[in-house]
Amino acid sequence: MSLGLFTLGAVALDALFGEPKGWHPLVAFGKFANRLERRFNPGGRGWRSHGVSAWVLAVLPLTLGVWLLSELPYIGWLVGVIALYAAIGLRSLNEHAEPVANALQTGDLPEARKRVGYMVSRETRELDESAVARAATESVLENGSDAVFAALFWFAVAGAPGVVLYRLSNTLDAMWGYRNERFERFGWAAARIDDVLNYIPARLVALTYALLGKTALALRCWRRQAPQWDSPNAGPVMAAGAGALGVALGGPAVYHGELHQRPVLGEGPAARAEDISRAMDLVRQGVLLWLAALFIGGWFLA
Prior knowledge:
mainly alpha, globular, Cobalamin_biosynth_CobD/CbiB
């Protein structure tokens, strides 16, 4: 079974069923990670070495187990498809973004604020329509990279163990990778490992967005604006995505009661409700492009 068919199978399962209902392996993993954090970082007193130990215990045994299962005859291919299906979140991303766009289009700003609060970590209670649209569009572009394309990349590079290693590492970054008193030291390893694992995928995603949108503008925004962003991987993705869409993203946002003056990304008018849907279309088209590349690459390598 070729890499392209593996990937197509997982993407098709995601399109048909979305995230597993009732029990999701990442939810169970999150509970396990919380127990590790309480053990290795009591009261926020853990050091970097404790964070490294916790990361190793959380990620490597599961990755090794999936590698062993993927090597089994007859069912190894199924392990790969299921692992990738559990790791990607294309349908889930749309299920979070679409209600925000719909609420804005019907003029229900309180509902739009509530819905976008499920997507972002910033405070949303005081956002106006443009700020809600901007937050949702940013989330679609960034999570398209983290929750879809990077999983496809690591599956293509290292199969089932690669995508499991990536998805678990990305989950730990989301849980531990904060720059605050509790996680500044303990979460350092999770944040840095996620940066490394996302470095190449993020730039491939930025290039994908650029090719599928306003290419020259996207490349210019990527080159000039991404270095100003505090995340080495989100910067290229969102700058190129904003340029590809021809909208302005970034700008001030409140996180945990503190106002952050973020650089402006992209060029053009302020984001609107329809730009959320346009961002989702950009992600979907990018997935189709990557699937085509995997099939063509597999054909040449066969």
